[in-house]
């Protein structure tokens, strides 16, 4: 199993702090729910209440498909987060895997917020609605604790694709 290298230790630490703070919070622990899960939850409520053509928009095939896909991706990401938390507690979480989970979860947060805004329609773009604020906040997740590009660089180097391995 790969281990964290010294040159990536600060990024590794920030990725772990990001992971443990913002991606492993829940109602059960009394902490603030994850932002991607919150966006999903308020959208579920919204699409069950909001009506178009005389029926809830959640009953339309597109809404069902979008929410089903988001639920699947959120659950898969949470499984990876749980795996990484266990690896971290065992002291075997590599910088590359920490970067992978940070990249995946921060990108997913943005995608979930975007899809949820879409299901809110024009209301999703109004600051009176929580989903609008979640959408704006999701953007910073791809920047702080290491940008998505830096996470990709760490992952790529872990794959041996940096120029240091190709020098003569």
Give your account of this protein's structure:
There is one protein chain. The chain is built from six helices and two strands; from the N terminus they run H-H-E-E-H-H-H-H. By secondary structure, it is an all-alpha fold. The radius of gyration is 18 Å and the shape is elongated.
Which characteristics define this entry?
two-stranded antiparallel sheet, 168 residues, 2 strands, 64% helix, elongated, mainly alpha
- The helical percent reads 55-70%
| Neighbour order of strands in the largest sheet | 1-2
How many helical elements? 6
> How far is the first residue's CA from the last residue's CA?
28 Å
Strand percentage lies at under 5%
| Poorly predicted runs | none
Describe the main β-sheet briefly.
Answer: 2 strands, antiparallel
Work out the oligomeric state of the chains in this entry.
Answer: single chain
Secondary structure: number of strands: 2
Secondary-structure element order, N to C: HHEEHHHH
Note the overall shape.
Answer: elongated
Structural class: mainly alpha
Mean pLDDT: 85
Question: Which radius of gyration do the C-alpha atoms yield?
Answer: 18 Å
What is the structure about, briefly put?
The protein is an all-alpha fold. It has helices at residues 9-22, 35-49, 61-89, 95-120, 130-141, 148-158, and strands at 51-52, 55-56. Strands 1-2 form a two-stranded antiparallel sheet.
Give the helices and strands, then pairings.
Elements lengths: L8 H14 L12 H15 L1 E2 L2 E2 L4 H29 L5 H26 L9 H12 L6 H11 L10
Antiparallel strand pairs: 1-2
């Amino acid at each position: 199993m790969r281990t964290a290298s010294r040159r990536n230790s600060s990024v590794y630490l920030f990725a772990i702090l990001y992971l443990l703070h913002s991606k492993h919070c829940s109602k059960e622990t009394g902490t603030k729910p994850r932002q991607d899960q919150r966006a999903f939850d308020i959208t579920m409520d919204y699409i069950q209440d909001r009506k178009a053509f005389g029926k809830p928009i959640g009953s339309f095939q597109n809404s069902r498909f979008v929410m089903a896909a988001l639920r699947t991706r959120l659950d898969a990401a949470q499984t990876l987060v749980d795996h990484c938390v266990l690896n971290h507690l065992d002291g075997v979480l590599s910088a590359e895997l920490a970067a992978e989970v940070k990249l995946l979860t921060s990108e997913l947060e943005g995608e979930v917020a975007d899809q949820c805004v879409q299901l809110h329609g024009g209301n999703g773009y109004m600051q009176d609605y929580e989903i609008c604020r979640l959408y704006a906040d999701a953007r910073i997740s791809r920047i702080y604790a290491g940008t998505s590009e830096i996470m990709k660089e760490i992952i790529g180097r872990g794959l041996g694709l940096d120029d240091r391995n190709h020098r003569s």
